Amino acid sequence: MRFCDTHAHYDDEAFDADRTRLLGRDLRDEGVEFVVNMGASLEGAERSAELARRYEEVYAGCGIHPDEVGIFGEEGSSQALSVMARLHGLLEQPKVVCVGEIGLDYHWMVQPKEIQRKWFAAQLHLAAELNLPINVHSREAAQDTFDVIVKHHTRAGKTLSGGIIHCYSGSVEMARAYVKLGYHIGVGGVVTFKNARVLKEVVQTLPLESLVTETDCPYMAPEPVRGTRNDSRNIRYVIAKIAALREMDEEACAAALLKNAKDVYRLA
Ligand SMILES: [Zn+2]
């Protein structure tokens, strides 16, 4: 079975001991066709781009996570302009395939909501300008995330070119609305958890073409390895669950989900 991971964090120190072996060989040998490593901070984005340069099967997302948007400082300041310029530079590198992860996090609330929304919107504009898909983090902020994306969908004649709503945790109705706008729904370890009732309904009722697989590793390991350090090989458990929920063959399910991810990131 061949599959892929649309959202991972192999630059995390949890992989310091075996990153080279995993990305250089083990993942590929166990069916992982490619991984998209997400930058979350500016340093993370730089590490992400570096991993993409070093390893054939790794691509990168570069963006500033909502917890990290303090780095922009004041709007219009030289600090803000310099961070944007560095991000812009990274996003033009050949194996950098999306702006991510970006979004809103009202759980930790490291930055006030209004500041988070401002820099989320600014990075959406960057994505539109560069014609890149986005990878969206949204925690306890489902409606605001959707509203910001809708509001900035088209600006100055440029339209956002879709992307992935990572670790999707919203309603079935909202998932449908995202798909209508051209987005994909990121499904990871959570779908294997007992209490993930709504996500299971999303997976059962949305078109298969709108789903993609992800880990968010080192976090979010699926059952039956929940609680351990996660890596992209565990996506096979996620695929088994999606196939079971949709009552379809696992191989066919994996092939379809792989194609969806290639479509989003334009790797086909
Ligand atoms: Zn993540």
Automatic annotation (TrEMBL):
It comes from the Bacteria. The keyword Disulfide bond does not apply. Keywords: Hydrolase, Metal-binding. The keyword Glycoprotein does not apply. One of its GO terms (molecular function) is hydrolase activity, acting on ester bonds. SUPFAM superfamilies: Metallo-dependent hydrolases (SSF51556). A divalent metal cation 1 binds at residues 7, 9, 101, 216. InterPro entries: DNase_TatD-rel_CS, Metal_Hydrolase, TatD-like, TatD/YcfH-like. A divalent metal cation 2 binds at residues 137, 166. One of its GO terms (cellular component) is cytosol. Pfam families: TatD_DNase. This is TatD family deoxyribonuclease.
